[in-house]
Amino acid sequence: MGASLNRLAMSDPRDGPLPVFLMLLTIVTGLVDAVSYLALGHVFVANMTGNVVFLAFAVVDAQEFSVPASFTAIVAFLLGALVGGRLARWQSAHRGRLFGATLLLETSLVGLALAVSLIALVSTSSGRYPTILALSVAMGLQNATARRLAVPDLTTTVLTLTLTGFAADSKLAGGTSPRFGRRIIATASMFLGAAIGALVVLSVGASAVLMLALVLLATVLATALPHWRTTDAWTSS
Q1: Which of 3, 30, 43, 51 could, after both became Cys, cross-link 194 (CB 3.0–4.6 A)?
Q2: Range of the domain at 46
């Protein structure tokens, strides 16, 4: 198993289990963005590049895009990133504790979004905006922490630089294709999460996808918590 992870560049003495954990969070990103785009209107809670573009579409009155929804997602994402930045400074010397604290907050926020979706239909304003708010804060928090952890090619919410590196560093471009396996896995994880999320949203409903995301987050949290007290090399920034 360890040899396989090494070949895929998913194992690193400095980063310990973080590559695998962040890959799972990338799947969560695909799940929640499927919910936000398909069930909350044309808005993303993790992909802020898309939201800025959607906001521009909405400003010029393009159909099916909403200024309030896109603006809410962007502001909430920034709030989550702000909290993530504060957490990173609080636990700057211990990546395991930073990751554990982030997961605890993120799991709570996704749980809140699930509760809202079960109480109020996400297609109504009373359910839509609180869900966008909770999920966007969670994704901003996740993105800020991933940025601080600085595990190469595993940002968990964006793939633009990952795909750029995949091509620009390839042997066809005269490069050495570093972390080829990791880049493939990161892209496949986002695709898998989005595909499963879309399938479940369309066949069952948004609440089922949020439940799946919550279970995945809780699993990662339970696995990561033992590292809270460790002093392994990978826990030092």
Answers
A1: 30
A2: 15-228
